[in-house]
Predict the structure.
Amino acid sequence: MGSTPHMYARLKSQLASSNAEVLLPSDGDKYEESIKRWSEHCEKRASCVVKITSAVDASTTVKFVKENKIPFVVRGGGHSTSGSASIDGGLIIDLSLMRGVAVDAAKKTIKVEGGALWVDVDVEAAKYGLAAVGGTVNHTGVGGLTLGGGYGYLSGKYGLTVDNLLEVEVVLASGEQVVASETSNADLFWAIRGAGQNFGVVTSFTFQGHPQPNPVFAGALIFMPDKLPQVVDFLNTFHATNDGNQVMLLGFTCPPPANAPVILTQLFHNGTHEEGHAFFKPLFDLGPVANLTSMMPYEKLNACMNEGQGFGGRKMFGGGAYKLPLAPPFIQALFDEFIGFSTSQPDMTESIMLFETIPYKEVVKVPNEEMAFSNRGEYYNLATMMKWVDPALDSRVRDFSRSLLKRASQAAGVQQDEAVRSAEGVGVYGNYVNPDVPASEVYGRNAKKLAELKQKFDPDNLFDRGTRLVTRPVVVVN
């Protein structure tokens, strides 16, 4: 059958008793707003957007697309740069109306609807003196970050976001609504934690919260490029000196208004100003050209990098890994290459290369076989966030980012090959890669089990927009 307005009128009738919205291109501004994404490069013209408000709505819609062989995607926060939350001609199951957060203060748990953003979680949890392990930008979706793993400022103390996930409510490819946890549908829960977008529509997440009654010391120090060797020297001490309460992000970028190269460091200490300043004192002594650090409530922390990560423009994440110590000449060469490329076009200067030095001691306590997520090893994440405007640059930007990250990872002590993927983690963060990357590179030894579970829970490969766990495509008629 074709995906026609008449067909979607039937879907709208099926959802009539709910508050769901069924939007077609003929619905003007509401439709146009519904297909906007964090990256313009991921905006596609769906034939229908269904803004669901409940798991029942999700079940109804999944059954409908399956019956009518309509290709579809699921949209949470709309922050992905892989294009997996957008589709040309098919249907979008949009969770953006589902942003509720409920805190159980006695159990210290936080239940979050599938379309919530991290700002929703941070603000509500703070009312109870709690925090969840979130990301580093608060307008990202809870679902995307969690299903792919989730590194954040609290990972040094409490592990990954997915390590703090207690339970999910999921609508499967059959339309069945199920609960998955360590004690209910445990095999599905294993798969959800790292490969969730391949298995269903997750309509709620329940997290373990952690006491966070006090403000934190955080913010950026910005240096001129000549300070790079000294900044790297300090970074090399971080592995030995942190106690899990600190994070340091080191970035290369050319921010407005000057669009000139700078060294960006984003600092975090879960404690007092005096403690934080003392820990990072060697950096302060270098004479930053800008000091944006201060004490702040934890719920404001994940907004620190929002300005440079706003909507608009074409964007693409890329991922790699590195080990400390890093040789300053090697980092200088990366700086020169990255800045040279990102200043070769006037619309690429806000691109950033980021060394995410988030302590991994708690992360590696969980074996890679414990869940689908497989990026656990004694290394840190390396990322690029490329930003540009001209569609003609799409391929060039992608090829540059992939090549640079692969070479940088290998030179920084993390060989992304089969031997390392078997002995340690895969050396690449799944949330930073595109779906065309082979499953073995994202999931390592877990890829085989994931393919088997995919056959159990989604044999027709209805949820086919994540890293491909099976090579047999589902046949659809658009």
